[in-house]
């Protein structure tokens, strides 16, 4: 069951993520409660981790960075991303990618 993402009424996909900045490498690390845990190599300063998160998710989904928007959690480890131009199947594959 994928309770860490949902398709909204406008066709976009909302992801609930738990972020671990400052990791040795950027990777998806599996489930963390009702969120998908992502480790980021970027430090949590000056928005670097948020920018790295958007770039990482866009690259994994094969979409433009402009299609990924940080909806909430600007300074929190728990973040909500809005994804446009991808499928639920592709997003579900994030949990299995490393």
Layout of SSEs?
Blueprint: E1 5-7, E2 13-20, E3 27-32, E4 35-39, H1 48-61, E5 68-72, E6 78-83, H2 88-92
Parallel strand pairs: 2-4
Antiparallel strand pairs: 1-2, 2-6, 3-4, 5-6
What does this molecule look like?
With 98 residues, this protein is of the alpha+beta class. It has one domain: Conserved Hypothetical Protein Mth637, Chain: A (2-Layer Sandwich), CATH 3.30.1200.10. It has helices at residues 48-61, 88-92; strands at 5-7, 13-20, 27-32, 35-39, 68-72, 78-83. The chain is globular, with a radius of gyration of 12 Å. The relative contact order is 0.24. Strand 3 (27-32) and strand 4 (35-39) form a beta hairpin. It is built from 2 helices and 6 strands; from the N terminus they run ββββαββα. Strands 1, 2, 3, 4, 5 and 6 form a 6-stranded mixed beta sheet that branches.
Question: Short description, anyone?
Answer:
This protein is α+β, with helices and mostly antiparallel strands and 98 residues long.
Shape: globular
Tell me the radius of gyration.
Answer: 12 Å
Q: What characterizes the major β-sheet?
A: 6 strands, mixed
Stretches with pLDDT under 50, minimum 5 residues: none
CATH T-level topology: Conserved Hypothetical Protein Mth637, Chain: A
The assigned structural class equals alpha+beta
> So how many helices?
2
Number of domains: 1
Number of strands: 6
Distance between the termini: 19 Å
CATH superfamily: YggU-like
Average pLDDT rating:
92
Report the β-strand fraction as a percent range. 25-35%
CATH structural architecture: 2-Layer Sandwich
Helix content: 10-25%
């Amino acid at each position: 069951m994928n309770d860490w993402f949902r398709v909204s009424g406008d066709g976009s996909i909302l992801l609930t993520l738990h972020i671990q900045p400052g990791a040795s490498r950027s990777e998806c690390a599996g489930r963390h409660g009702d969120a998908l845990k992502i480790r980021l190599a970027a430090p949590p300063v000056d928005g670097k981790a948020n920018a790295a998160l958007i770039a990482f998710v866009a690259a994994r989904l094969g979409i433009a960075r402009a299609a990924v928007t940080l909806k909430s959690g600007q300074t929190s480890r728990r973040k909500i991303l809005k994804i446009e131009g991808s499928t639920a199947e592709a997003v579900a594959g994030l949990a299995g990618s490393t």
